[in-house]
Specification:
It comes from Rhizobium tropici. With 206 residues, this protein is an alpha/beta fold. The protein has 7 helices and 6 strands; from the N terminus they run E-E-H-H-H-E-H-E-H-E-H-E-H. Helix content is 34%, strand content 15%.
């Protein structure tokens, strides 16, 4: 399908052909949910750790005699019901990662791109290049394009001026095409692709 290309100044820069196999799918929420869950699980550090009754430093001596007191038959002060005792069933350090087939990950990316295209939230820019690393100038260009919340995907190598200028603008993310992912696509309002990014995506999913 043909799609209009713009410059950063908002002018027309011709057309580009978009593949139906990447941008023309009917988005499936179940696949997108699986990929996002997998991504977020990988990001979790899993370093949370509570002290159990084996970890707290308290005496292990029996608190009082077994019989004759009229009270419950307690043994150790490390038990969870006592102040200063260990936590019952607390979190332990572990990995939250789980496997997801490569084909499902690739399919999830195509469905995320198709979802953005179907919602008319895709913009194609001919080249993501800034003449100088000035945030004010780039913010003005984004305002002209109506971009307040967007993910920019450039080619394999990002223009350093563009990357630095966009760094301080809130709700704007810039990634090279090899860093494109489902979570970042869906968490931002608009998806802005360079022509180099589209070529790389079509080569990747050929």
């Amino acid at each position: 399908m043909e799609f209009n290309v713009k410059t950063l100044e908002g002018k027309d820069a011709g057309k580009v052909s978009l593949s139906d196999a990447i941008f023309g799918l009917e988005p499936r929420e179940d696949i997108l949910a699986r990929v996002i869950r997998w991504q977020l699980a990988k990001k979790q550090q899993g370093t949370h750790q509570a002290k159990g009754r084996a970890d707290v430093a308290r005496t292990g001596a029996k608190m009082y005699k077994q019989k004759g007191t009229g009270r419950a038959r307690h043994h150790s002060a490390r038990a969870p019901q006592f102040r200063g005792g260990g936590k019952a069933h607390g979190p332990v350090a572990r990995s939250h990662e789980h496997d997801l087939p490569k084909k499902v990950r690739a399919l999830g990316l195509r469905h995320a791109l198709s979802a953005k295209f179907k919602a008319e939230d895709v913009i194609v820019i001919d080249n993501l290049v800034a003449t100088e690393a000035k945030t004010k100038a780039l913010a003005g260009a984004f305002e002209t394009l109506g971009l307040t919340n967007a993910l920019f995907i450039g080619g394999a190598e990002l223009d350093s001026n563009f990357k630095l200028a966009a760094k301080n603008i809130p709700n704007i993310d810039v990634l090279p095409v090899q860093g494109i992912n489902v979570y970042d696509i869906l968490r931002r309002g608009k998806l802005v692709l360079s022509k180099a990014a589209i070529e790389a995506l079509e080569e990747r999913f050929k």
